[in-house]
Amino acid sequence: MLKSFKLWMTRQHYRTGSLPNPWLLPLIPLSWFYQLGVTSRLLAYQYGLLKSYQAPVPVISVGNLTTGGTGKTPMVITLAKGLVQSGKTVVILSRGYGAAQPVDYSRALDPAYGDEAYLIQEQVPEAIVIVGKNRVQNLQRSLRDYRPDFVILDDGFQHIQLERDMNILLVDGHQLLGNNQLLPAGPLREPLSELGRADVIFITKTVNEATLKTVQGWSQRFGPIPPKPPIQILPVPFQPAGLRPMGDFASLQSHNVAIESLKTRPVIAFSAIAQTNQFEQDLKNLGLNLIQHVQFEDHHVYTPADVEKLTALMQQVQQVQQAQPIPQEGPILVTTDKDLTKVRNLLPSQIQGQVYTLQMLPLLDGRWFYDEFLTQLHKHPTAGAGYVPSSRR
Questions:
Q1: Segments in 132-275 forming alpha helices (H)
Q2: Rounded CA gap, 62 and 236, in Å?
C-alpha cells in the first residue's frame, strides 16, 4: 500500500498545470514551511553563518532542482569517462541514497551500498566511487587516499557544504519541474530562483524548441547579472542504443542487440526508478511488444518474492505462446541498468538469457565536454600546501 501511494504521489507531482492535484492542496502549507527551511539554510551560507569547504582540486557538481530522475547517473558516467579518457584520476562522491547497507566511507563495490553508485563504479571502473553520507569528510579522506585530479559530486546541487568549480544542473526536458510546487506538494527541492547557482544546464532526455525556450527564459530571469558569465544551456537528448543482454551488463565490450530483432518477442518490463512511466513510454515508442510493466518505488530493494512473481509471469506468457497454432517465441524481461545491479544475483539461471536492459544513452561526448569546459578549471590556491594530484606527481 505504501509503495503504491509513493508511486501515486510521484505521478501527481509531475502533472502539468499551475496548481497541483486537489488531493495535494492540503500539503501546500507544509511546502511553505519547507521553503522557509530551505531559504534559511541558503541565507546562512550566503552570510557566512555556515561555512563551505573548498577543496584543493576542481569539484564538479551534477544535480537537479527536483526529486526523481533527470538522468544524473548516465550523465555522471559520461563525464567521468571523459575525464578518465583525458588521463585524469577521478573521485566520485555519492551519498548512497536508498542503500540497503549504509556505509560511512567505502568504494561502491557492492550494490547494497547504493544501486546508483554501484552502477557508476561498474561502468567506469577506472574511477573511484566513494559512498557515504558525510561527503565533506569523505572528500578529505579521498584526497589523502587517491590523490584525484577532479572530484565529481553526484546529486550535489543542494550539497552546498562543498564549494564547487562547476555547478551542472539537469532538467528533464519532458517533465520539466512538474507542477512547480515545492515538497511535499510538488517535486521541487528548492525554489526555481535557485537555478541561478548553475554554471551549466543540461536539458536531458527529450528536447524540443518549446522546452529550450522555457529553460532559456528561466536562465534570463534568474541567471547571474553581468559581468558574470551567463548560464550555459546544453540540450542533451537521450537516444535508444538497443537492448543489452544481461550477460554483457558489466562488460566494457558489451554488444547491444538491435531493437528490430526483438520486436516479435512479448516483453515483460520491470523497474524501480523515479520515472517508471517514462521508461514504459520509451519501450512503447521503440515498438516493442510490451504486455506488462511491473512497477516498484524508486530505490526498491528486490526480494526473492519479486523474482518469483516475474518468473511466474514469464511462464504464463510462455504457455500462451506455445498454445498458438504456430508456436511463438517466448517472452523476455526488460529493465534498466540501475535495476539490474540490484536484482541480477537473484535471477535464476534458466531465465538469465532472456533478460535485457534498455540502453538510453545521452548524446554528449564526455571528452569533448572536458576539452570545452573543464580544461580551464584550475586547482585552488590552497592546494599549495603540498597537495599534488595523481596525474602531476
A1: 135-146, 209-222
A2: 14
DSSP 8-state class, residue 370:
I
Ordered structural domains, the chain, with CATH: 47-239+363-388 (3.40.50.300), 240-361 (3.40.50)
Q: Distance of CA 19 to CAs 5, 15, 51, 191, 217, Å?
A: 20, 9, 37, 15, 20
Whole-number Å distance between alpha carbons of 377 and 189: 28
Q: Find, among 313, 230, 239, 231, the residue nearest to 270 by Cα.
A: 313
Q: Each residue of 104-119: pLDDT tens digit? A: 999 999 989 999 999 9
Full strand arrangement of the beta sheet holding 355-362:
106-107, 128-131, 90-94, 150-154, 59-64, 166-172, 200-205, 232-245, 355-362, 332-335, 266-271, 289-295
Report pTM: 0.91
